[in-house]
Amino acid sequence: MYLAEHLENIMEFYSVIILPPQPIIKTVKEMKDELASRIGLFNSRNSDAHLTICEFMQVKKSCF
Predict the structure, then answer these.
(1) What integer pLDDT is reported at residue 8 of this predicted model?
(2) Is the pTM of this model over 0.70?
(3) Do the Cβ atoms of 22 and 61 come closer than 8 Å?
(4) Domain spans of the chain?
């Protein structure tokens, strides 16, 4: 079993994010659509606009 698969079984993953107002989310989506039409798919293509503040993980309670 790969380490990443093992971690998914025992860890919970969380992100703290800030979502901009809906008009900004819409504008960013339109910009991503335009970019995708020019260069093709990219990793964040289907992600809504957001700012990630931090990411963390903790052991699942079911593992105790």
Answers:
(1) 77
(2) no
(3) no
(4) 3-63
Q: Are 55 and 32 in contact (CB under 8 A)?
A: no
Q: Which two tokens mark 22?
A: 């809906």
Residues in the chain: 64
* Close Cβ partners of 24 (under 8 Å, ≥ 6 residues apart): 49
3-state secondary structure string across 27-62: HHHHHHHHHHHHHCCCCCCCCCCCEEEEEEEEECHH
Q: Do 12 and 48 form a contact (C-beta atoms < 8 A)?
A: no
Type of residue at 25: I
| Tokens, residue 48 | 């809504």
Question: Could you tell me which of 29, 8, 12 has the C-alpha nearest to residue 20?
Answer: 29
